[in-house]
Structure formats: structure tokens, C-alpha cells
Amino acid sequence: MKKKNWYGKVGLCVLLFVLAFSLATQLAAIAQDKPTVEQPAEAPQVVGSNLGVSGKLGQALAKAPAGTGPGQIDVNAPKGAFGIPGAPQVSYLLAILWATWVGWIFSTVGAFGGIMAGVGHMTVYGLGNYAKTFSKTAPTLNKTLTDSIRTSNQFLVGLSALISTINYLKAKRLAWPLGIALALGSIAGAVFIPILTGGKISFRQYQGWFGVFVFTVGGVLLYELTPKGQEGKKAAKAAAQAFEKSVKEKKDLVSDGITLKKFGITKSTFTFFGTDFNFNPVWAFVGGLVIAAISSFIGVGGGFLYVPYLTSIVGAPMYVVAGTSAMAVLVSMVTSIAGYITVAKAGMDWGLIGIELVGIFVGSMIGPRTQKYIPDKWLKIIFVILAFYVGLRYFSAGFFGQSWVP
Amino acid sequence: MNLYATIDSILINLYRVTGNPLSDYFVGTFLLALLCVIVGELTISVVFRINKSHLDRLNSRVVKMQELSSEALQRGDEESYRACNKVGNDAFGHLFFNKFGLAAASLWPIFLALAWMQERFIGIGLPLPWIGWEINYVLFYILCYIPARILFGRMKPRLPYFRSVNQMLQAYEKSAAGQK
After folding, report:
1. CA-based nearest residue in chain A for residue B49
2. Is B54 near chain A, with CB under 8 Å?
3. I need a labelling partner for A18 at 20 to 30 A (CA). Which of A57, A72, A402, B48 fits?
4. Domain boundaries along the sequence of chain A
């Protein structure tokens, strides 16, 4: 089918390009960043052992200064988050309550739940402030803790894809040719980011980029509230309703699924309901790579980018977009998490993730029951304000070293 | 005795079945994985019973838009096809994030089991013959979880409570996939 709204595609391409370019610029700066060696007047005593913590986190702990002050490891203190002595002890009650709020948002507003999960790890549980204390005294520990925080974020927001993919797989609703090209790109992006940035991103840099991401999501929510954003949705709804009325007799729409008609490096064709869909596997690969790289770097699922990419740029039908995007999210999430755990050797607090999942399913049960009492528009207004506040806070604290808002 | 110590004293019994350390590690981890599958299935059944009408409503919106979009595609009506896709995307977004609750309900025991294994088995690697690599507790647990899930899936239709849960989930999956 011909695609008329080319401007939407160009806009999305430009947005992806700008995000990719900013990310690439930042990554280049990180790659060239030579670690500065602090020369303290008196070398502090280092911990000297991994204190029972495995992987890179344990190695970084061994090199951290021992002591009771900020930026030091108190070896005699009780174990806290990630098994580190003296690290914040995340109250499981607080974790369940915060995760319930995250689950409530997932079931009412959607993607913003992922942002709030990140806010929980970084701010509410105090892990971000704790990581920051090591920025001067033990930079490697600071960066390893940052990897653990972003992997924890990705765990929480990417899991939904697992069950969805299994269901769509059973229903033969994955556009395989397109999905494979996209998934290969996703794997490349999700491998490339942990290798290039694992152990190299300080908490402040991560916080700043998370702030930029929150601003972007806030901007999308704000656009949806503007008359222009509303108009687009209303027009689509009206057109869909008009079409529904015009369909007098509904045919049996059970399809044979998707058939690959032609495969080429730059042009492939699959058939769906007798209509040919052409796509460029190279572009699908590049799209998957860029989206997975952004998702892996920030620590999010990426479904919110795959769906508009597949519908707007590739022009794929809704019937296959759902399953194909869920598969791409799953592939990139598994690759990225495996990359952080195996290549960057990020430590995980499994108990915290388990407790958070309990909170999320409690919240997702409460959400649908309470949503009817809050109008959709007000929910969006609340989250736009929250997005700009959180975005500004993280952006300023991350890139300028001081939060501009309380 | 605190909660962790109580749970620890119960779970470690799963690793004392045969008396041989290696066999016990295999059997114990498999039984732990099976326990997690059962607890996860119980939780998902509760969440599903409570939220079913809401999920059905979201599903029917998505399925309707899929059907209309396919119909528009068959008729060559590009404008309607794009409109149905756009409305369908919004509906799918809602459904996607609501399903996160279902995924969380099913998977939370895995992470608590890994947390317990981290305390008990961290540093213990299972050597692979000839290759020289070692499998750590996370990978070994995942390798046990997959057959445990398959085994429980086969057993479900024969187990009293899970039989009805299984029927309910299958009906839901069919409707979610837009199958008649």
C-alpha cells in the first residue's frame, strides 16, 4: 500500500536520528574518556576483598576505600542492597508500596510506569544517592552500581513482553520476515550498548539521560493533550467508526497468517490477507538497532518505540504489529540483560525485583477499579506535570551536578 | 526465628532428597523451580479472576480494531486502514501494559527463589564436561525452570483447581489472539 502521511514518518525518522545522534555523541565521549586518577594526599586503606559479593561488583568493592564516611565501605555494617555492607537497606514494605504505585500506573497510564520504576530504584530506595557517593572515591564501583540500577529497571519494564510473545507465537501472529530483521537489529543494539557502556557510565551521566528520556515521554503526553494531538485521535476514531458502520456484513476474518513471498536484502515482501507488504530489511535492522540501543542504555522495554515504528515507517498491519513488537522487545530485553550480567557483570538484587513484581501485580489489580474515578484527561495532566518535574530534576542533577527543583 | 530463616529451613529440605550432593543440586533446583511454577500459576489465577472483565474489555477493543483494519486492507481502503491501525495501537498499548500485571503475577516467585539461591549457592559453579565452563546458579535455575513449566503445563488439565484455571486461560488466549 502507498503511504500518504510521509511527514509523520519523516518526523519519526528525524526523532530517532536525533536520539541516536545524541546517544552516539555521548558514547563517543565516553569511549574517549580517560579515567582520571585522583591523587589523594594520603592513600586510604582499601577493602581488599569482595566481601562475598560476586562478579565485577565484588571486584569493585575490593578496590573501594574502607571506612565509615561517605564514599567508603563500612565492612562491619550490615549488608544492604546488592549485598554490599552499609548500602541502603531497602525496606520491603516501601518496595511493595512503591511497586504497587508503579503497577497502578502501568494499568492506567501505560509506559510511565517504567519511568516510576526507575525513579524508585534511583531516588526512593536511595540507590542513586548511594552510587553517587563513590563518584570520586571509587569510580568503578559507582559505574558498576549504575549498571545494576539500569539492569533492574529493564527487568521490570521488559517482562511484559515475555508472556505476550508466547501468546502471539501460538496464534501465528508474528510477521517472521520483518520480526527477524528487526530482532537481528535489536540484538546488535542490545549487545553493542552493554559492551560499549557497561562499567563506563557514571550514575550522574545515567541520571541526566534518564531525565532527557522522561522529558521526551512528558512531551508526547503533552502533545496528546493539545488540540492538535486530540484532533488526530478524534479524526482516527471517527474514521474507524465510520468504516465500522459501512461494514455491513462481517466476513470470517480468520487468516492463514503471514506468507513470505520474496526475500531480498533491500526489498522483501510478505503477503497478508492477499495484500503484499514490502519492507526494507536493512531499515528494519537499523530501526531495531537504534530502538534497542536507546532501550538498553536507558533501561526500558522499548515497546513504545517499536509500535509507532512498525505502523508508521514500515506500514505493517495492526494484526501483526502487536506480536512483532512484543517479540522485538523480548529479544532486545533478554540480550541486553544477559549482556549486562555476563559482559558488564552487573550485580542483581533478585529479592528486590521479586518483591517489586508482587507490588506491580497488586497495583495492576487496583488500577482498573480506581481508574473510573479519575478522568483520563486529568490523569494525563498529572503525569505531564510529574514528567516535567522528574525530567528536570534528573536532567539538572545529572548534567549540572545540582537539582534545579526541590 | 525470622521469616527468611523459616523459609530457608523449608527450602533446603528440597536439596536433601538423595543424599548425593550433585544429584541433590539437580533434584532440589528442579523441585524449587516446580514450586515457583505452581505458586506463579496460583497467583496468576487470582489476578485473572479479579481482572478478567477489564482484560476482556481491552481485548475486545483490540480484536475489533484488528478485524476492521484487516477488512479495510482487503477492500483497499487505505484511509480507513490507517485510522483503524491508529485507534488499534492505542487500545493495544493499554492492553500491553495491563498484561504486565499478569506477567508479574506469574514470574515473581522466580526472583525470590533466585534471591534465596544467591545466599545459598553463590560461588558454586557446575562444571561442564570437556568445555571447561561453569554454569552458575542463575543459568542452572533457568535450565530447570523451563522443563518444570512444561511438565506442569502437561499436568494442569488433570489437577483439580488448575483444570478450571487452564480452561479459563486458554479461552482468554484464544480471544486475545482474535481466534473465533
Report:
1. A365
2. yes
3. A402
4. 52-239+256-400
